[in-house]
């Protein structure tokens, strides 16, 4: 379809590792899986803690909103990440989040109930601290592995992280049911502290960051510089728009599925099976990319992934029964895996290392804020339209995202051996 973008500034730093399975990447992989496991456990446990104390799904939504609201500031966090050594933000955020979770869990165990204002305050603080971890983690991967192994590294990280999240969700449900939500929250706090300890064993080469004379004065100027870098490429300019479209389409589907399973001849357990099959699909796509990374073109994979997910939504719209929804779940997860991992690799190859934090923070902000905002917009309409209609809406959004992607990616075909220069 389209040629591969030649990377700029990837793999050119002194001290870069010579193999994929070096100590730092292996430790990073284990630490990331540990953190994903604990986060899945705590996410489920915190929801049940709020539900147990208030009996209100609305209060659960408020707590979720408190944890997501700080993501609006993610571009500022990305600018700070681009100033610092990448390991520091990850370790500091893990230590602080671990302490916050241990505090809430211990308070709930000791007193039985925790004031809702305190829970929401901790959710806001946890979200603020997490702002630094996400862009730093994405920007660090190109420094952990050789340039030729970047796609494989991202695929392995994606599959292992998804597997750890799935295991954490299942384990969290078991702990909450058998014991209590506070115990699961304490487990999450311990997982963050373990992640911080493991990150202390990681070695990262220095980045080719701009010197003080080249750096704009002030955080807002640095964010603007990152946006100018994105503006030099149609692919990067449209990437947030495409991400917003995909998340906007997924939001009503996420809200409609539980009700559809509960009332359409399925059970609540059927929705859990749907999520498991979706995760299996993501892991299968990650394994495929990891095995065939050197033969697969990132942009072709993204296009196939967009087409597969659009087709899965179409199947869900045409046959909204559990017998068809469950196979569609695997296809949907496989498509997501073909989109997300190659997309991250492409961003890491396209963007100069000194700007990765800012670029990933903009994409992260759109991805994390787009879904709850879309849910708020469609919430009044969810019960008024037949539930399968929302699968059709998601398919249309996915198809539109695919069309925009093809227009953007095919417009930028640097000649063989010519680099796409994104330096500001």
Automatic annotation (TrEMBL):
| Membrane topology qualifier | Multi-pass membrane protein
Carries keyword Ribonucleoprotein? Answer: no
- The superkingdom of the source organism is Bacteria
Predominant location? membrane
Membrane-spanning parts: 25-49, 118-144, 183-204, 236-257, 269-294, 301-319, 325-343, 355-381, 387-407
Alphabetic keyword roster: Cell membrane, Membrane, Transmembrane, Transmembrane helix
Protein's name in the database: MFS transporter
What is the native source organism of this protein? Deinococcus radiotolerans
């Amino acid at each position: 379809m389209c040629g591969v973008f030649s990377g700029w500034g990837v793999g050119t730093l002194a001290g870069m590792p010579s193999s994929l399975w070096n100590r730092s990447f292996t430790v990073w992989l284990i630490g990331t899986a540990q953190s994903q496991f604990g986060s899945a456990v705590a996410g489920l446990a915190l929801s049940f803690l709020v539900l147990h104390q208030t009996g209100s799904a609305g209060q659960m939504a408020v707590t979720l909103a408190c944890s997501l609201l700080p993501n609006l500031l993610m571009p500022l966090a990305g600018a700070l990440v681009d100033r610092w050594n990448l390991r520091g933000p990850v370790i500091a955020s893990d230590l602080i989040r671990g302490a916050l979770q241990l505090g809430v869990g211990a308070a709930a165990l000791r007193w039985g109930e925790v004031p809702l204002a305190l829970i929401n305050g901790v959710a806001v603080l946890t979200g603020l601290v997490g702002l630094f971890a996400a862009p730093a983690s994405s920007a660090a991967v190109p420094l952990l592995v050789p340039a030729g192994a970047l796609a494989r590294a991202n695929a392995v990280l994606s599959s292992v992280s998804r597997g750890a999240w799935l295991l954490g969700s299942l384990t969290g449900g078991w702990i909450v049911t058998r014991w209590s939500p506070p115990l699961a929250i304490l487990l999450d706090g311990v997982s963050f502290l373990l992640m911080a300890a493991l990150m202390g064993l990681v070695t990262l080469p220095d980045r080719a960051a701009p010197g003080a004379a080249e750096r704009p004065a002030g955080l807002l100027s640095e964010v603007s510089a990152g946006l100018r870098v994105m503006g030099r490429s149609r692919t990067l300019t449209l990437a947030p728009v495409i991400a917003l479209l995909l998340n906007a389409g997924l939001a009503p589907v996420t809200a409609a599925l539980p009700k559809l399973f509960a009332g359409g001849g399925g059970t609540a357990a059927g929705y859990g099976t749907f999520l498991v099959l979706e995760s299996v699909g993501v892991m299968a796509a990650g394994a495929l990319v990891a095995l065939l990374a050197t033969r697969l073109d990132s942009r072709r994979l993204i296009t196939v992934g967009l087409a597969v997910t659009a087709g899965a939504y179409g199947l869900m719209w045409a046959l909204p029964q559990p017998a068809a929804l469950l196979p569609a779940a695997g296809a949907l997860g496989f498509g997501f895996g073909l989109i997300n991992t190659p997309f991250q690799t492409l961003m890491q190859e396209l963007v100069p290392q000194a700007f990765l934090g800012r670029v990933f923070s903009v994409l992260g902000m759109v991805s994390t804020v787009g879904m709850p905002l879309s849910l708020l917009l469609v919430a009044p309409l969810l019960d008024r339209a037949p539930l399968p209609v929302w699968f059709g809406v998601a398919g249309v959004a996915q198809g539109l995202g695919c069309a925009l992607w093809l227009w953007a990616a095919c417009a930028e075909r640097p000649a063989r051996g010519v680099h796409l220069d994104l330096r500001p």
